[in-house]
Amino acid sequence: MGSPYASDIGNDYFGSFHLRRAEYTDTGEAILEYKTRVMEYTARDLTYHSDILNAFKGIEAVMKRSMSTQFWYGLPESQLDTALLWTLTGAHKRRGVSAKGFTKSCFPSWTWAGWDSRVELGAYFYITGLRREINWYLINRKGVATLMATEDTVAELESTECDERRIEPEGQLPDHFLAVEQPRLKVDADDEDWRYPEYLACWTTLAFFCLPGEVVSLGDQGLTWENGLNLAIFNRSEMWVGSIMMDQKWVTDNLPRPRFEFMLMSRSKDIIDLMPPPRPKYFDEETLIKRQWCLLNVMLIERENDIARRLGVGFIHEDAWVEANPTSMFIRLE
């Protein structure tokens, strides 16, 4: 029996959403299709919070073939760096199930499925290119790790005053963090040990910045986030160095605080202007030089030792990141 979304409408597409069945030759076209389906599904009202990934399974089964990649908690492995750049357009609320007076999160914080909210993917990070800066690992509940098969994008970077200080983590990943590692080709995502990995992990850099609560307008583009505030990120010298979209209630509950911790993920080439002038700005362009690939894609986290949870994603200028003297660390996201 075929997918519950299947219908006889031609060789290239099938499903009630006209999903493409043939393999994509254009990565951009594939990720655009994926983004559209995620936004449609997170806008649905579900009877049970834990149903979100089950409801997405029909779409995922088709896109596994058309995108030639495995999916983990609803995110395509080959395009993981792009798929992690979703933002909430609804409330900043974890998706959970209640039992015996306690509420437990259904899914990890790094996947859109872990949040009871509408999601957008590609509006805040409406970029012309993305470069991977770190390697990602999956760790299962037995402590076995595997290096994910993410697409490697190589890009030449313009020279900067910070060229002598690299942004990627220094040194090699300590052996004890991945005591048992399994080659990716030997990992079966349908195997019981790997179906629901415990952690998404990486060897990355961390830095502290300030969120004093100053809001930066995105103009008409900001209407996408009815509950969101585009917050300015400041360094210790009180310079505006980046931006992040966060929920209004989260801002009320958590700001002001002296500092917040951010984790390096990837970098963006350019941000495309969706609306007519004036163009939105994401950092102080009078102090920091605007150039291609200067924006680092970062994750706002809260953590205990090396276990962290995602709070949001945003941009920080690479010069400010280097100036903050980031530390190298192995992080396990739950």
Instruction: State the total count of DSSP E strands.
Output: 19
Unreliable stretches covering 5 or more consecutive residues: 1-16, 160-164
Helix content: 10-25%
Oligomer: single chain
Shape by Cα distribution: globular
Q: Quickly give the structural class.
A: alpha+beta
Main sheet specs: 5 strands, mixed, barrel
Portion of residues in beta strands equals 25-35%
| Count of alpha/pi helices | 5
Order of helices and strands: EEHHEEHEEEEEEEEEEEHEEEHE
Question: Explain this structure to me?
Answer:
This protein has 334 residues and is α+β, with helices and mostly antiparallel strands. 14% of the residues lie in helices and 31% in strands. The protein has five helices and 19 strands. The strands form five sheets. The protein has a five-stranded mixed barrel. Strand 1 (13-14) and strand 2 form a beta hairpin. Helix 1 (27-42) runs antiparallel to helix 2 (52-66). The longest helix has 16 residues, at 27-42. The protein is globular, with a radius of gyration of 20 Å. The chain starts with 12 loop residues before the first strand and ends with a strand.
